[in-house]
């Protein structure tokens, strides 16, 4: 939760954006409850983050499925480079792990008062996002 909160504070601005996710809006069948296990949110990127220009958008995606999901950005987002910050458990304990990795690299404090550099993984424009 610590690393997620830190990234959220650094990236997410106060303005929430409306998004449409094709393929998630399904008609419910009688007697069946549809629970969306893929949650996608969009915000303007924090204007306090000097790594990004005003007008940048931050998407955050939570995949609660047992399998990976693929997302293709459309519209004006299709032609944009994506900076991916993929947080996952680190180690063999899966979701019970006490450690977290960012884009495949374990996260740990440098020393008692120094945070590690949280580097994004650049993805080329038009690339399908794979969410484990």
UniProtKB/TrEMBL annotation:
Transmembrane segments: none annotated. GO terms for biological process: extracellular matrix organization. It comes from the Eukaryota. GO terms for cellular component: extracellular matrix; extracellular space. PANTHER family: HEPARANASE (PTHR46145), INACTIVE HEPARANASE-2 (PTHR46145:SF1). This is HPSE2 protein. It comes from Erythrocercus mccallii. The lineage of its organism: Eukaryota, Metazoa, Chordata, Craniata, Vertebrata.
């Amino acid at each position: 939760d610590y690393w997620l909160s830190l990234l959220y504070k650094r990236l997410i601005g106060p303005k929430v954006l409306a998004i449409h996710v094709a393929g998630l809006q399904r008609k419910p069948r009688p007697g069946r409850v549809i629970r969306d296990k893929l949650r996608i949110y969009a915000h303007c990127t924090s204007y306090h983050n000097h790594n990004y220009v005003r007008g940048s958008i931050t998407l955050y995606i939570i995949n609660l499925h047992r399998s990976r999901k693929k997302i293709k950005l459309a519209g004006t987002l299709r032609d944009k480079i994506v900076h991916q910050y993929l947080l996952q458990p680190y180690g063999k304990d899966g979701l019970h792990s006490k450690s977290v990795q960012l884009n495949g690299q374990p996260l740990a404090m440098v020393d008692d008062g120094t945070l590690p550099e949280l580097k994004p993984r650049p993805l080329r424009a038009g690339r399908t996002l794979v969410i484990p």
